[in-house]
Amino acid sequence: MTDTLVIEIAMQSMIVAAKMSAPVLLTALGVGFAISLFQSVTQIQEATLSFVPKAIAIGAALLLTGNWMLREMMTFTVQMFEKIPTLLS
C-alpha cells in the first residue's frame, strides 16, 4: 500500500463526508440566517425562536436527501470493500 493510495482514500473519505453533511448544514445555515434577519427586523430577541424552525427544516432536509445520502454511503462502502484485496498486496 503506497502513500499515494492512502492519500487518495483519505481524500475520497473527506469528499463523501462533505457531501453527506452539506444538505443539513446548508439548510441550518439558510434557516438560521432567515430567522436572524426576521429577529433583527422585528426586534424580537427570543433565543428559542430559532430552534424549532431549524429542527423542522433539518428534519425535512433529512427526509428529502436521506435516500441519496444512504446510496452515496453504500456506494462508498462497497468501493472500499472491493479495494481490500488490492490494499493487502
TrEMBL record:
The organism's place on the tree of life at top rank: Bacteria
Q: Note the topology in the membrane.
A: Multi-pass membrane protein
What is its biological role? Role in flagellar biosynthesis.
Key words, A-Z: Bacterial flagellum, Cell membrane, Cell projection, Cilium, Flagellum, Membrane, Transmembrane, Transmembrane helix
What protein name applies here? Flagellar biosynthetic protein FliQ
Q: What is one Pfam family matched by this protein?
A: Bac_export_3
**UniProt keyword annotation of Protein biosynthesis present:** no
Tell me its family.
Answer: Belongs to the FliQ/MopD/SpaQ family.
Which gene name does the record give?
A: fliQ
Q: Which residues cross the membrane?
A: 20-39, 51-70
Q: What is the lineage of its organism?
A: Bacteria, Bacillati, Actinomycetota, Actinomycetes, Micromonosporales
Has UniProt tagged this entry with the keyword Magnesium?
A: no
Q: Where is it localised?
A: Cell membrane; Bacterial flagellum basal body
